[in-house]
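Before drawing any conclusions, I needed to go through one protein's amino acid sequence and its backbone structure tokens, quoted below without any editing.
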Amino acid sequence: MRFGFWISNGNDWDRILASARAAEACGWDGIWVPDHFMPPEEGYGHEPAGIDPELLPIHECWSLLAALAAAVPRVRLGAMVTGNTYRHPAVLAKQAATVDHISGGRLVLGLGAGWQENEHRRYGLDYGAASDRADRLEEACAMITGLFADERTDFDGAHYRLSGAPLAPKPVQDPLPLMIGGTGERRTIPAAVRYAHEWNGWCTPGEMRHYNALIDRLCEQASRDPAEMQRSAALMLFLCDSERAAAELRAQPFDRPRMVGTAAQIAEQVAEYAAAGTDELVIPDFNLGPEEAALETIERFSAEVAAAFRGPQP
């Protein structure tokens, strides 16, 4: 199993770089960055009183990925996930190919339909209905696949058009992994099966089993080997020093999948994800506190939990 560390782009650059380097040094397999321009209008629920959440600093995702590609030499790098509505897919393909070169072939192109309405409204981006965003995501996947593979690409869709579009240089990786994020069973997951090499969703182990079964069925219907699709789950980590602290946290309501417990208890929960067919766990830093505490947690998790689940290291 792989383990990815998801670093908030609301951190300052020095912390982002220090976190990425620390995660790489202690054995994590990937660094992920969210693609947002501002927090949601209602905030995340932990902003200081009297602060307008939209005015909090947020760095741009793909600029960060390019910088990390040059500064952090080993791990996979990716967006968790790029909002398709924020950039023309041909421009995104060019960005991705460039970052893949800077990284020496370590990029994963994470892509989703887009969901945060206030970013679209504030920046004058077309939001549209969920069905429109799903249509645009499918067209974007087809375009990006063509641009990466073909010398020139023509595309005539309802939302996007290309006329003999080149993309050179091609990515270092062939193919550059495309990861679709989202749990929509009617449009998003079928799009992942049709176009992507990886899929990601916020999942409990039970939900992971459900989505994996769906992906397997859709792959079989499409005459695609299910083993070709990597599957990853995003979830919060609460690594506790005592059972008492863990019990207090478990009693609190929470709206995201999470792992809570001592190192031994967390290892049992990781084993549940592994048994459910999870190839990678992606753990954000959003709840890990100040920089020193967050770095201590990721080092402890890597040494006390993840080491037992990693495959042979090169």
Notes: The domain at 2-232 is CATH 3.20.20.30 (TIM Barrel). The radius of gyration is 19 Å. The first strand starts at residue 2 and ends at 6.
